[in-house]
């Protein structure tokens, strides 16, 4: 009986060790995701972002020479021309056209309008899917989202061609137009807002940045979700 109990304890003990090892291995595997929030400090090639999703409330982000950094600035209607890469969101009409509340012009990646993918709280460019309620678009009951290249411009009407087809987007005097410009690492400063897309092996406590979008804080600050698994 004593020998059986000893073997049982040994088996159970080995099982616990195996489970712990599996858990540690899983935790060490980095996952894709994003953090968003205000920059609290900058030191060389790393900076800290305040975010509610990190277990510590802060993410430490590392930047490499391969990290793409864009800054969001005010744009003009002159940027809305054939070939430009855009993301538009607003109210979707009964015929599928979107009355744009916001249009963002972004840089192409490898010559294609597939950049800015995986941003928190939204669809990837070109999917043609609707975005969930968020800042600037929550007042509409029927939300529409389009992303891709502008294939035609006729007055205040744009045709945006994405991966799932073309969408008609109308622009008005109330449409907010933004542009993302490629910038250097020096654009990342304390109190600026950043969206960081990259990998993390600890739920967002530390993040290796693949892409960073920089913008200025508004009167409501930086209020978008923290690290999300991709």
Instruction: Give the helix proportion (percent range).
Output: 10-25%
Overall geometric form: elongated
Structural class: mainly beta
Order of helices and strands: HEEEEEEEEEEEE
Count of alpha and pi helical runs: 1
Residue stretches low in confidence (pLDDT < 50, at least 5 long) are 10-26, 115-140
How many beta-strand runs? Answer: 12
Euclidean distance between termini CA atoms: 52 Å
Mean pLDDT: 79
Question: What features would you describe in this structure?
Answer:
This protein starts with a helix and ends in a 15-residue tail after the last strand. Residues 10-26 and 115-140 have low confidence and may be disordered. The protein folds into two domains: 31-70 and 183-215, Copper binding periplasmic protein CusF (OB fold (Dihydrolipoamide Acetyltransferase, E2P), Beta Barrel), CATH 2.40.50; 75-181, no CATH class. It has one helix at residues 2-28; strands at residues 31-43, 46-50, 58-62, 68-74, 85-92, 98-106, 143-154, 157-162, 165-170, 176-182, 193-200, 206-215. It has 230 residues and is mainly beta. The longest helix has 27 residues, at 2-28. A hairpin with a 2-residue loop joins β8 (157-162) and β9 (165-170). The chain has one helix and twelve strands, in the order αββββββββββββ. Strands 1, 2, 3, 4, 5, 6, 7, 8, 9, 10, 11 and 12 form a twelve-stranded mixed β-sheet that branches.
Can you summarize this structure?
The protein is mainly beta and 230 residues long.
